[in-house]
């Protein structure tokens, strides 16, 4: 069981590997990534939801 946590999980979104994914849902088909410019009132980047085909893999 511990071997599962030793691997990093990668995300393919619409066939492209994404490295900046904060949250994802494979069954609903969305990922949340930080916005490059927009910040919230605490100075943290806003999360943008993108919809498409999501696949997870061990890297």
Report on this model:
- Pfam families: DUF3297.
- This is Glutathione peroxidase.
- The chain is mainly beta.
- The protein has one domain (2-58).
- The protein is built from no helices and 6 strands.
- The strands form 2 sheets. A 3-stranded antiparallel sheet has the order 2-1-6, with no helix packed on it.
- It is globular.
Quick rundown:
The protein is mainly beta and 59 residues long. It has one domain (2-58). The chain has strands at 9-13, 16-18, 23-25, 30-39, 45-51, 54-58.
Radius of gyration, in angstroms, nearest whole number? 13 Å
Largest sheet strand order: 2-1-6
Largest sheet composition: 3 strands, antiparallel
Q: Overall 3D geometry?
A: globular
Structural class: mainly beta
Mean pLDDT: 91
Residue fraction in strands: over 45%
Any key phrases for this structure?
3-stranded antiparallel beta sheet
What's the SSE blueprint?
Elements: E1 9-13, E2 16-18, E3 23-25, E4 30-39, E5 45-51, E6 54-58
Antiparallel strand pairs: 1-2, 1-6, 3-4, 4-5
């Amino acid at each position: 069981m511990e071997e599962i946590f030793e691997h990093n999980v990668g995300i393919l979104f619409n066939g492209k590997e994404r490295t900046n994914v904060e949250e994802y849902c494979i069954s609903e088909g969305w990922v949340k990534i930080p916005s490059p410019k927009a910040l919230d009132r605490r100075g943290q980047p806003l999360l943008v939801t993108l919809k498409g085909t999501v696949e997870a893999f061990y890297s």
